Amino acid sequence: MSHQTGIKANEKLKKFFAKNCHSSKIRIFKVCIENEELTLAQHVEAKGTWEDDFDKHVHKMIETDHPSYIMCRFDSKNSTGYDWLLVSWSPDDAPVRQKMLYASTKATLKQEFGSGQIQEEVHATTLEELTAASVRKIKEAPAPLSPQEEEALMSQVTDSMRHVGVESRGATLNTLNMPLSDQAKEGLAALASEQVNYVRLAIDILQERIDVDITSVIQAKELGTNVPEDTARYHVFRYQYKHDGQDKKAIVFIYSMPGYSCPIKERMLYSSSKAPLIETVESILGVKVDKKMEVDSGKEVSEECLFEALNPAEDPMSTSTAGVTQKKFDKPKGPPNRGAKRLTKSHHQCSVLD
């Protein structure tokens, strides 16, 4: 639950909303928090399409070290007026207190403007995310599936793959055992013999198999550049690093899925083929995978992330007595029918699967 700050729109902003939120005159406006009030900072009129106006003005309106809100009017309409985009600009270099203040006040801004008019929301932390192309990609992405829809679709994909010859590992396990191509097996064998330290695998949907598309020797800091932004992949990486003065090696399996920009069938195939593939990788390498991760983009795959995943910090909520670690608190179990957990990640975090 978000905690609102008590900050409200001042009278000037309220009058601006009343006059312009249903008008075609204003294209973009900026709202800031000043003197504990939501204040109109800047606005521009429509000259071209929303994409043209967005790319022309938004970068000029924001500050690279201070949060703000940007509202942009789309060219489309709904039953009550124009559709609007709300951008929450929260740059990495902004003070933490300011970022928290803006995050906590966003619900109030939406309420004052009219939540029904806001068709899309974007949370941006870098200038690269503030482009019409980035917004359009979000607009065109299919809506997330509910847990029930995911389950029904998984059943359909499993049945269809059975019919075309892919071995199912059991419908109750929601897994598909896709065979590896000879080239993929050779790539993993090269990883096992340390000829390479990185192998990237892809599902060939037409051939109904898992193939290799990259085998290479890379540095840990280069790993993120090999994660596609528009399609799913599997990555197997031998990570060599130092810890407590000792040389360490670890096999890391990364499942990258850029989210709902991928077709539904591709998302389901990669998800359901993951567990059997890990077993096959371990069989070919002759060792267990040390860490399994899931990421949305290459921004989440940093050397720091790998190191912390393999060497997690000691839980500050734990105490040690006579050599035995005891947790002070046990989190109670949630309700049994609440559905799947949702993950919220920053750009510098990745999700550990095991």
Automatic annotation (TrEMBL):
Keywords: Actin-binding, Cytoplasm, Cytoskeleton, Repeat
Signal peptide range in chain numbering: none
A single cellular component GO annotation: cell cortex
TM spans (from-to): none
Pfam families: Cofilin_ADF
Function: Actin-binding protein involved in motile and morphological processes. Inhibits actin polymerization, likely by sequestering G-actin.
CDD domains reported for this sequence: ADF_Twf-C_like (cd11284), ADF_Twf-N_like (cd11285)
Disordered: region residues: 312-354
Coiled coil: none
Biased composition (Basic residues): 339-348
Name the record gives this protein: Twinfilin
GO biological process assignments: actin filament depolymerization; barbed-end actin filament capping; positive regulation of neuron projection development; regulation of lamellipodium assembly
MF terms in GO: actin filament binding; actin monomer binding
PANTHER family per record: TWINFILIN
SMART domains: ADF (SM00102)
Domain ADF-H positions: 1-140, 175-311
Alphabetized PROSITE patterns for the sequence: ADF_H
Compartments, as annotated in UniProt: Cytoplasm, Cell cortex; Cytoplasm, Cytoskeleton
Protein family membership: Belongs to the actin-binding proteins ADF family. Twinfilin subfamily.
The organism's place on the tree of life at top rank: Eukaryota
